[in-house]
Amino acid sequence: xxxxxxxxxxxxxxxxxxxxxxxxxxxxxxxxxxxxxxxxxxxxxxxxxxxxxxxxxxxxxxxxxxxxxxxxxxxxxxxxxxxxxxxxxxxxxxxxxxxxxxxxxxxxxxxxxxxxxxxxxxxxxxxxxxxxxxxxxxxxxxxxxxxxxxxxxxxxxxxxxxxxxxxxxxxxxxxxxxxxxxxxxxxxxxxxxxxxxxxxxxxxxxxxxxxxxxxxxxxxxxxxxxxxxxxxxxxxxxxxxxxxxxxxxxxxxxxxxxxxxxxxxxxxxxxxxxxxxxxxxxxxxxxxxxxxxxxxxxxxxxxxxxxxxxxxxxxxxxxxxxxxxxxxxxxx
Amino acid sequence: xxxxxxxxxxxxxxxxxxxxxxxxxxxxxxxxxxxxxxxxxxxxxxxxxxxxxxxxxxxxxxxxxxxxxxxxxxxxxxxxxxxxxxxxxxxxxxxxxxxxxxxxxxxxxxxxxxxxxxxxxxxxxxxxxxxxxxxxxxxxxxxxxxxxxxxxxxxxxxxxxxxxxxxxxxxxxxxxxxxxxxxxxxxxxxxxxxxxxxxxxxxxxxxxxxxxxxxxxxxxxxxxxxxxxxxxxxxxxxxxxxxxxxxxxxxxxxxxxxxxxxxxxxxxxxxxxxxxxxxxxxxxxxxxxxxxxxxxxxxxxxxxxxxxxxxxxxxxxxxxxxxxxxxxxxxxxxxxxx
Amino acid sequence: xxxxxxxxxxxxxxxxxxxxxxxxxxxxxxxxxxxxxxxxxxxxxxxxxxxxxxxxxxxxxxxxxxxxxxxxxxxxxxxxxxxxxxxxxxxxxxxxxxxxxxxxxxxxxxxxxxxxxxxxxxxxxxxxxxxxxxxxxxxxxxxxxxxxxxxxxxxxxxxxxxxxxxxxxxxxxxxxxxxxxxxxxxxxxxxxxxxxxxxxxxxxxxxxxxxxxxxxxxxxxxxxxxxxxxxxxxxxxxxxxxxxxxxxxxxxxxxxxxxxxxxxxxxxxxxxxxxxxxxxxxxxxxxxxxxxxxxxxxxxxxxxxxxxxxxxxxxxxxxxxxxxxxxxxxxxxxxxxxxxxxxxxxxxxxxxxxxxxxxxxxxxxxxxxxxxxxxxxxxxxxxxxxxxxxxxxxxxxxxxxxxxxxxxxxxxxxxxxxxxxxxxxxxxxxxxxxxxxxxxxxxxxxxxxxxxxxxxxxxxxxxxxxxxxxxxxxxxxxxxxxxxxxxxxxxxxxxxxxxxxxxxxxxxxxxxxxx
Amino acid sequence: xxxxxxxxxxxxxxxxxxxxxxxxxxxxxxxxxxxxxxxxxxxxxxxxxxxxxxxxxxxxxxxxxxxxxxxxxxxxxxxxxxxxxxxxxxxxxxxxxxxxxxxxxxxxxxxxxxxxxxxxxxxxxxxxxxxxxxxxxxxxxxxxxxxxxxxxxxxxxxxxxxxxxxxxxxxxxxxxxxxxxxxxxxxxxxxxxxxxxxxxxxxxxxxxxxxxxxxxxxxxxxxxxxxxxxxxxxxxxxxxxxxxxxxxxxxxxxxxxxxxxxxxxxxxxxxxxxxxxxxxxxxxxxxxxxxxxxxxxxxxxxxxxxxxxxxxxxxxxxxxxxxxxxxxxxxxxxxxxxxxxxxxxxx
Lengths: 332, 338, 515, 347
Ligand SMILES: Nc1ncnc2c1ncn2[C@@H]1O[C@H](COP(=O)(O)OP(=O)(O)OP(=O)(O)O)[C@@H](O)[C@H]1O
Ligand SMILES: Nc1ncnc2c1ncn2[C@@H]1O[C@H](COP(=O)(O)OP(=O)(O)OP(=O)(O)O)[C@@H](O)[C@H]1O
Ligand SMILES: [Mg+2]
Ligand SMILES: [Mg+2]
Hints:
The complex is a heterotetramer.
Chain A (H helix, E strand, L loop, with lengths): L11 H20 L6 H26 L7 H19 L1 H28 L5 H23 L7 H8 L8 H19 L1 H18 L4 H26 L12 H10 L11 H20 L2 H7 L6 H20 L7
Chain B lengths: L16 H28 L6 H26 L7 H15 L4 H27 L5 H19 L9 H8 L1 E2 L2 E2 H18 L2 H11 L1 H6 L4 H27 L6 H17 L11 H20 L7 H15 L16
Antiparallel strand pairs in B: 1-2
Helix pairs in contact in B: 1-12, 2-7, 2-8, 2-10, 2-11, 2-12, 3-4, 3-5, 3-10, 3-11, 4-5, 4-10, 6-10, 8-10, 11-12, 12-13
Chain C lengths: L9 E10 L2 E11 L3 E6 L6 H8 L7 E6 L2 E3 L4 H7 L1 E4 L11 H5 L6 E2 L2 E2 L1 H14 L16 H13 L5 E5 L7 H16 L3 E5 L3 H7 L2 E6 L2 E7 L5 H9 L21 E8 L3 E8 L4 E5 L6 H8 L6 E7 L2 E3 L4 H5 L5 E4 L3 H5 L6 H7 L2 H4 E2 L2 E2 L1 H15 L15 H13 L5 E5 L7 H16 L3 E5 L3 H7 L2 E6 L2 E7 L5 H8 L6 H8 L1
Parallel strand pairs in C: 3-10, 3-11, 6-9, 9-10, 15-22, 15-23, 18-21, 21-22
Antiparallel strand pairs in C: 1-2, 1-4, 4-5, 7-8, 11-12, 13-14, 13-16, 16-17, 19-20, 23-24
Helix pairs in contact in C: 4-5, 12-15
The complex binds adenosine-5'-triphosphate (2 copies) and magnesium ion (2 copies).
């Protein structure tokens, strides 16, 4: 049972998840020597932090038993608005306010999601899907209509690929800080209790005189802001923002959170698990891309597109890992 | 003891319309939205509602409709199937390889495709039921696998299908599109019998309350297995129709995911509850047509290309929010927190 | 009383069941004859539900054997059990809210045509079953989820009967029923007994046992204590056998009612959506006012209206003399108003079952135990300890899931959660449903205590005895309004039933009674 | 259309793909024409720019007078929707349909229907593989060969080589064609070259991630061929800071800027989104009854670092801007600023 005691006694599922990480690294290092190099691990942690920051918000949403499918284009929105801020706010404001502006746009999108889910009582799974389409529409309009500037500001670049502490990429620092805040929020704060409670029985929450709808809106807003922040960092990393930059993040985000032991129906899950899930997914994707699996099969005379093996192995590994620790109780 | 001798027995009640409407409200709303949209489309269409226009629209809509029907079943059990899109695509790739040649071979090919679909669904079901994984992650994983297989079957777009069969599936006779007939058949021959069988009802039971269903002696495993397997079949039907429309097969991840996500939207617009236990595949069909008609509106209202995605998004959000009108009737706030 | 059946129809021996560390049942034996009603008695957590869950195949015993009609049985699933003729009415209802009444009643073996469900036949069968148990008012096409709890329980009974069982088990099946329904059900049970059915009956209501049972078996802490013929022991003896300690009369003495000063809560012409019709009522501090009447006459809606859960409530509400508008539970629990509502359905409205006892207890009072959104653990702990002590909540530590508590203790948690907000007006919605005598008594005492401390209490119950036992006044509801106010000497079962059925009370005295 | 003898009209612009390419002639429709551009997915920078150019081109006076109605519709990823849209335009009696296909194989039916009604079908970018319509081809295989030649030229002359190939979405004909061309040349070179494939999906982010991983995992490459999202790959190589290999990439403005800034040896080749203009020009020519080759080979614009400001790289324009919008032979030339400016007011 994942509740406020999460950190006190770590759930075995999370431990197994971390075990899987070690296992993956082991396999990787056997297959390819360069694998356990510090360079590679740091590299993985850096890319993991982008996913981690995005997943942080979505995880809160899933704890409430909701889901946020709007992240792909909210990510893009965050990035493109931050880089385009100059064009929109003018040079004097645009330069310094680029990052806050980008994040605020995401926050706004999240806010609309929240209102739709909490006050219009629309199912989050589809309302956020609609929001995703709207965000996409806005971004296409933005690029198509205004030939916007898409270069990241120096600050964004620094945040995304600089090193405040030697050898520790800044995104990782940001993720650590954000993670710390969220862990505190989930375990020590009133909001955290209310999030878990809503995920368990919103009806009881309402009758306990807690305005669950405000909490819902707030959490969706946080999710939007996290996604946008991820977008800002991503465009800082590529030193550019671009259309569809968020598309590769939807499914990995959900997979990471669920692999981390968060219950899709809400009410149960720990941030520690999400961290594990994020690292798992990142490693898995990277290993599958680096380890050229097709070569092995080619030796066996099976000549097929590389992606065949990447996809199949990806799917199988997820199933196996979930079998190890992600099983639900039998109904009795 | 037989009930017949019971003194307290009175003559049985008739089914009352009130409850029928309550049960069908989701479907009816979807039908209404669709009717309005399609009327607008027809009116704005320069050449009016010619048989060709209708046929084109139905062919397009039928694909998503079938995938949405597939999505409906797992959703009714309180689950979700993120692999319907990829199953749909796998069937498409497979069909482009095996559904050709003599009528006999073609028929055999069709059977192969449908069986493949059933298998995909069955695998999902087995993982969910006996692997006891949350459907969302289980099907997320299998969708990756099915895409991989589809890619293996069809590394590059192409392939072919029995032309006569394909034409016959996509033509419209006496202004009745064959694809519409296919949908009707899927409903009358598969959905309705299933829904009115003990097995079909048991998926509603499971979705409504797993514990209660178990305590009532409902076979939960069989219910879920049947739901996911049948979903595979519907998705494969869709893939088959797609092959008839495109005369080819293609494995493109974006396409599969597009269909998966849209199918969920269609199911919801069709009035099925994502918590399970309430809804119908028929609603999903209209939900799908609503989704697709939005695209048609783009064409008839000459909308600025860079504004088109925004238009689609806004209409979708609007359609979703329509459901909130029911809030106006609510007097007891507890009804909000089911 | 029919002595036809020679040997026992159902015999159980040496059955044990453990849940992890928890011992649910330890080497219990049991036997019941065809054509008899066998009462199973015990505290909350005594093992009754577990026992019948074993009989009906929901859980499998660790050890022990079950014989039905002399043949050994082992039920892997409820399906098998009901096929073998054992069907059960579960305490936690086993109904499917989204399905129609008819679907529920015929869930496993509906009448068929061409292999498909025969809707008409099913509807007919359902109506017959409902008619037999006196639930004609229930429409077979209605979704079960929309029925009030009492109707649902009737459906549950019909559902069990539809399987023509040899052995019928009722686990607290009447806990939510109204006096009227109970009478009908009892008549039916007696008829079934005559027809030779073996009936196992679990209830916490002594009077029901006395009326129905031929034999009684008592469990305590998962152990078999004793089986005896009904009527050979007094209630107190039985209760002591159950709780294993000295036991005195059920209801604590009433406090000195009707304190001076302005009423804590007064309602004028309150009405809502045609279901509540100008209700006028006032409660003084320290007074316990019961809400009586048949089930579903608007009592629940009345409490919800006071708690701000209903939209479009008309009329005036005054709290401590000040007129107020109560827009939401959040507002209702605010210190200015100081209301608390103990809801009827603890599993869905009272608790977050998977969360810990701690989190549930402090949830309503989080604002008071947290500063700047941070939960003050120290403060929280001391408040929780106080409550746990005061309510004697039995749980190993407050950091286990509340789901692991017995229903009785779960109920205490719900009450404790609201006491932590230090309410001045407490609204209770049938709080003792499915609670054993021991726990009930503790709750009565608590109510009197609160009253003594000056809390105003509105107390809705489906159990007339407890209305009579611990209320100063009882407002009887009929068709959404208060038709009579009973107090003092006129507060008798006879009057309650009379008023509930709204017979023989001239309109004049209603009004002044209400004021 | 009737198959006729070559040579076709304006061979400078409408260059036959090969000697064996057949020629088409439609009976002239009467101007002005109704033309529809049926696009699939729009939400990426290349497509957005492609559509801008199309509108810009149609807005040019000389072209405008030829055209009564020009409709653009983007239907998203769904292939059936694109087919439906095309059919719809045919039913509405448009004279020509221009398609950037979601799926190259899927339009057999559409083409058949169009030809039955004498409607001209022109496909470009992701072309329709059907011999009964006009394909405006970028020589994708040629691009792959070009990349291989460049990398071989720039790589060390001796010893074994390892190249990194950042590929496009799996199963896309363009990706496969380029890959074939790439390996054809490498195979013929006689050098021992190991090629590491990673998937970059033609998107900067994916390309960057894939490249970063490949390098971080100990990969050392003497040359990199990135099909799209080139700036991402270049960025990743610079961030890693292990080596500076020559890169052959697409024509993204950002890529060229990075190459100059970091003094990389770069080849930047491809065919800009302006090919939509060529497609329109082709359609018009066909509608006028001119003789047109069935497969038209577009010239591929290639530039090498260092790039020249304002001509081959445009610091004041978005990095997502695709250079190489000039087809002099078709006297189609869009100065980058034209495109930006034009669309700003147009949309
Ligand atoms: N799901 C469970 N998990 C663990 N232990 C359980 C579970 N259900 C019951 N128990 C154990 O079995 C004991 C008896 O439970 P049971 O429900 O039979 O009590 P009961 O006699 O039905 O009480 P009540 O009169 O309130 O219904 C409990 O004290 C508990 O320790
Ligand atoms: N999930 C669980 N884990 C551990 N123990 C449990 C669990 N569920 C129930 N119990 C045990 O079951 C006992 C109560 O069983 P049950 O849930 O039937 O309630 P109950 O005793 O029947 O009370 P009531 O009649 O009020 O529902 C409790 O003492 C509790 O220890
Ligand atoms: Mg019990
Ligand atoms: Mg119980």
